[in-house]
Amino acid sequence: MNRSSVDFTKVVETCNSLHGLISIGTLNFHSLPTEICALQGIAVDDQRWKWLDHEFLNQCYRGNIHPVFKALTFLIRHRYFTATFKVFQVSVCDRLLPIAIAKVRIYAVPLDIEGARYIRQWRQKWLAQYLSREFRSNWLVLMKVLDYSPRGWHGCSHHCTIDDFVNDSVLILPLNGSDKYIDPFLCPSSFHFTRWLDQLQYFVPQNRSEESLDTVVLRIYNNVAVPDMSGYKNRDFKKKLGLASSGDLITSLINEYPYNSAVLPGVLSTLYPFQVKSLCRMLEKETLVQNLPVPYFKMIVSPSGKVYYFDMFDPGFHLNPELYTSPRGGILAENMGLGKTLICLSLICATKFDISTVPDNLMLYHDQSVRGKENTRRPGMKSLADICQDTIGQNSLPWKFFQDDLPQSVIDKLSRTNGFFRIGLTYSANQYGLRTKEKRMEEDEYQTLFMSNSTLLVVPENLFHQWNHELNKHIEPSYLSKLFVSDRFKQPIHNSNSTYTDNIPENVDQLITYDLVLITAPLFARLSKKKSCTLRDLYWKRLIIDEGHSMSSKSSNLSTLCNSIYAERRWAVTGTPTSGLTNLYMDEEEQIKEQSVEQSPSKKKRKYVVKSKFNVRDDLVKLGNLVSSYFKVEPFHSQPKLWNSAIVKNLSDSTFSTESNLKSLLDSLMVRHNLADVESDLKLPQLHHEAVFISPSYHNKLSINLFTAVLAVNAVSSEREGSDYMFDPSNRQQLRRLVNNLQLSTFYWTGFQLDDVKTLIGIAKHCLKKTNPAGDPFFGNSDRELLQRSLSAAYEAIHNPGWRTASMLHEMQYFVRGLPYPFIRTYGLGVLESLGLGVFGAPHLAAIQEFYYKNRFMDMDDEAALTAKLESGSQKFWENYWNDSARKDNSKFKKQESTHDFDVHGLKEALEDDLRQTRGDFKISPSKSSSGSQDWNSTRDSLTNEVGGGLKITGEKKLVHNVVSGSDVKKATILGSASAKLSYLASRLVDHQRQGVKSIVFFEFEDSAYYLTELLDILGVNYILYATFIGAGQRSNNLADFDSHNSEALGGITLIMDLRLASHGLTIISATRVYFLSPVWQRSVEAQAIKRAHRIGQTHEVYVETLVLRDTLEEEIYKRRERNEPQQEKSDTARQYVIDDTGMQQFILKHNFLPTEGGESEYASFTALDLNSGENEQPDENVDSLLSHKSVQQLQNHTWYKNWRMYLFNPDNLQKLNAAKKQKASLEQLNSELVEGKPEMASRKIPHKQRKRVRF
């Protein structure tokens, strides 16, 4: 007998041994060839089951056999399957003879069965690709019709009725049939795959549609398992005198905490129950290492009750799965504001004495002796002390736990003994790359890693102060030995158990003494690139990356460098591990407030979840990078492409879905609670979210109407088609820019130049005059009406002196009463003759304030002397002002100069030729480039007086009503500003300062923040900036200053924050008032910003106001965002930009002009709804002191309003000016304040009766 015959015999023996095969399911056939043969065969057992002779049946029907049986024939012929059958006599009714139905049992031959190698060798006669392709296609045919239920497998008696046989639902196929088989019910393959997993018989589903990848992934994300520690509940355990094991620690935490806080040493704060569960789950994951099936192996229970596995990446049946070792760590993915920092610190304290051990998954260097190659001679006899010392070090015994009981000599000796192991540089090359390997091999053959009890914590620069603050707040100062490493500490600072420096110790023995090493991410990246860095010489007990979603990018610098760090346990801490897993739980009372309207505010309470819109495939790729690169889960770490081919592809595959496997992987990695679990443990103070609808100011209307006119004229002149039409797809970028500027105009806008508006007028007039060949107007009545309204808006703007001046100087206009005329003539931007008011910009008011404080003792009733002094001072001011404007370096932000100048896009080119033909003398001014610069020399020449430093406009007219005594100058008041929002917000912030309230103002556009900070300086309101142009280190100091600010003693303060910096990680619970300068288009961005203040630790109710300018684009944005959303779930719009939303486009295309009324006030007064319901204040008005801002309450239509009298010269402003002149704190002083806390400042919030009189 030759070798091939022997091998085939082994194949047959293997495939005919049913006890080693896998029972899959059953098929049912009728129309059996009983007239040809008796269907007798070789019996398998004593239950009348016989081997299925597929070749014989194929011959009986001469190939005209059912496609399902053909598929089965291929699988049996190539020894993938084996089948047995049994014929049942089924009675349909009493009048008819029973029909013969053959039930066929299908068995799979597992790929890991004993003797599988013979089957693989035998199949080599066919091409592997052919077998793989045919196996997959034929198994899919079978999978759709098999009955997987245990009842179908075991069947009924030999003689039975049709009801007994069919039971609930059974598919019975004819044995003979057509060549082509079509699923009669067109059910998706995924449905049958699920039926297979659930051991169900064949049935027709009610919903036959395919599920999208988005649906599948969202279902996985929404059902990530919460930590279940019920197995430790009421578990018996005995307290030990020594160090408790992790199991005992978890048991004690679950059963005793918080009744016995000693269970968690070193932690001062009390954890919420859900935080305890998260902590215990993290402890369990760090200590309980499991071997789990790889995610593409699916566990299935056979009809006979036997467990087997199916490989969905390379389809095949297995008795046992491929395994991967679960990482010792994972993702702490609790939602924002739920105390992830405290959980991590508690974990570090709970495992303080644990020391990393020699890993099982690293290839160790062959020589692990203490001296390595130097140990060539046989050593002498070691002392017992040396043996103990080496044993303790190499076995990672937690000797520090017993430190108080040991003699100092023993402690000193053990401190110098650090356990270690060596890895060959061949393995190390996988971490650093080939070039590093070659370079290192020249020096040495191995790398030594020292085991330690240290945790390496990498945090973003802007969160450094927060971690420092949380450590001081939650952890006993002496419990942990801490090293803080940041660029900001040029000079080391040492205090109790903490060291602050800008570098890592070069001595490993020194580094290993710290329990916690906290380092900023930028410095970590820089130090890790060095050739020799002690960070790489330790086998860290734990590596924690705060805001760990940054690790989801394989190409990120931090992700790459973390691969070079060896750590026993790894954690990524983030509330947003991927975009799809970003869920923000909001519980708010929503209120809509109207400024100066008759209706009362409306309220409604609601709970909802804000979810981010995300790209599913990108999200899965990010998740795969975390799994493979950071957590190094095999086989994905060694085969990075396997994640996409085995997991992502099969999630959307309609056949073999890996949904449950991916969910299992996420369950094993993530520590995360859902809303219900958190709510049962935690009740945050109420969140009140209010939409405040504000009526636009006169200058708001002018700007918005100009934008509307531009779009209207463009629509008419382009006939709403072609590349000249703003809404043509080719102009998408330009349209976005225009709509972005339209949003800016709801706060304040000065980007239109006079020439732009004149061009607009010329185009509108041309269109009105245009006629068709018959001599009739070319455009219809509705278009002509649009043109007329556009002309009216343009003429109203250019005829307004204030608008013309603002369009050239880009200053916010403030309207001041009570300044003598010489002040207005020398520093003013304009006048309102009828009211006797002066118009100023913020720099001009600041100069006037400084002038007044310097010259407070002069006789200001002497008009000649006052005028001379003002002219002298104003000339220098104006010279500096023009130079600063030319350099565009005025202040903290860039003003609306050329960066936002309007560009008459497409209109010039579209009409230039036509205009030349109809009006040869008409010229269109060149359109301004967004990168062009304003000609400040010509602006200066056109505005300034030839004599003196003031503007022409203030010297041309004498104010009839401006009769102000010099002694009354200190009573000068700012009546309002040109921006409705600015006036409203200033009223709020002045009130908060008076009441000692901390607040946050979120801005999207720097222009708005620029104008706000200018006014707050003028009014003397405390504020701190947190913006992108401020360095990360300084931002940390700013947050620390905000948190430490004593509002009770020093008055309230506001944090003005860029919305882009408010997304992740920051905790600002000292603030109870939050303002958005405009509606935020993306809900998740808004919710994340709110969570800065409304989170764990907040003890006061939080009030949020979103400012909305009524009857504008903003109101439509707000309504559009609220419309058609389910109450329990709020999702981001799928459109990234406002203009990309169809509904917003339709609103803009309506070309709604805001009505302006004759005699309308040009300023918006400082008025807001009263927060104190009519409690009047009586500020001190002593004749010898500066006046503080005064408010008057008014009751209108059952609603209290507060009108503010803002004094130009006030004690708050004077104090800010004096403070600004003081020398700025040095970096060393700032660092000292960050580490030790800011020294308490003297109180300035003194009762009126006790205030010292300050004479001027």
TrEMBL record:
Biased composition (Basic residues): 1245-1256
GO biological process terms on file: DNA repair
Residue stretches spanning the membrane: none
Listed Pfam families: Helicase_C, SNF2-rel_dom
UniProt keyword annotation of RNA-binding present: no
Sample GO molecular function, one term: ATP-dependent activity, acting on DNA
Polar residues: bias regions: 934-943
Keyword ATP-binding: yes
Domain Helicase C-terminal, residue spans: 984-1133
Record keywords: ATP-binding, Hydrolase, Nucleotide-binding
CDD domains to which the protein is assigned, alphabetical: SF2_C_SNF
Any GO CC annotation of this UniProt entry: nucleus
Region Disordered: start-end pairs: 921-943, 1236-1256
Name assigned to this protein: CIC11C00000004560
